[in-house]
């Protein structure tokens, strides 16, 4: 899984100003636009990536070329569960040709780093320091991918949740087709254009995804809770249900199965769903 993705709840920031339209958030979005600092910015530049849960990193792919410049020096630091910052030891950078995104032209040069240390296990955040650029000028990156999986200490339910999320995204990407009209000068056919106009002129309230809604109240969840049954409901709904059950002398249980909660079967915050809701909906 590529954890350099806002879809998986990752956050990214940079300590220097970015050029308009070339924000560092492009690196975790589907915009396919590169990241580039303002013209007056010089190295070093620190890019911080925070993950929604601890991960084990297997490989980091970096396209270091933006416009007519290349990043010629960089360092990677990882924060693990012991809260200490470690410099990640990587094999000697090797230029390889890798096709990782359709947005990258064939033959793009990618910097591939394969970790060979326990320090890449249980990583909660990464810092990428751009130390030099050639020729001298504002630094930037075309693409960044961080491949890995949830670390062993992540609960099975959360691990299963994020795997399902990634799988659904992968299937969606495979189904997407390129609109070839974008690449030529031929006008779009009238019927296609009218469909596009219909969508744009639609009053347009974006439909709320069904998975954002509490099954019990049909309202958008503010703090989704993942139950042992696999269903997610808002924390307020669970609290009300537990309170009602207590009135009848019953212990807290799953509203959908009636099975009491235990240490190995208990509700947990659905942090992945929470991240998706927060990114799509403003309360």
CATH class of the largest domain: Mainly Beta
Strand content: 25-35%
Average of pLDDT: 75
Distance between the termini: 30 Å
Q: Report the count of strand segments.
A: 14
User: What's the helix-strand series?
Assistant: EEEEEEEEEEEHHEEHEH
Fraction of residues in H or I helices:
10-25%
Q: What is the architecture of the largest domain at the second tier of CATH?
A: Sandwich
Write the layout of secondary structure elements.
Layout (H helix, E strand, L loop, with lengths): L10 E4 L20 E2 L8 E19 L1 E2 L2 E12 L4 E3 L6 E4 L11 E6 L8 E12 L5 E2 L1 E8 L5 H20 L14 H12 L22 E3 L5 E3 H13 L20 E2 L1 H10 L3
Antiparallel strand pairs: 1-3, 2-10, 3-8, 3-9, 3-11, 4-5, 5-6, 5-9, 7-8, 12-13, 12-14
Organism: Armadillidium nasatum
GO molecular function: ubiquitin protein ligase binding; ubiquitin-ubiquitin ligase activity
Protein name: RING finger protein 37
Walkthrough of the structure:
About 20% of the residues have low confidence. The protein has 2 domains: 150 residues, Galactose-binding domain-like (Jelly Rolls, Sandwich), CATH 2.60.120; 71 residues, Zinc/RING finger domain, C3HC4 (zinc finger) (Herpes Virus-1, 2-Layer Sandwich), CATH 3.30.40.10. Strands 1, 3, 4, 5, 6, 7, 8, 9 and 11 form a 9-stranded antiparallel beta sheet that branches. The radius of gyration is 23 Å and the shape is elongated. With 283 residues, it is of the alpha+beta class.
Structure at a glance:
With 283 residues, the protein is an alpha+beta fold. It is 19% helix and 29% strand.
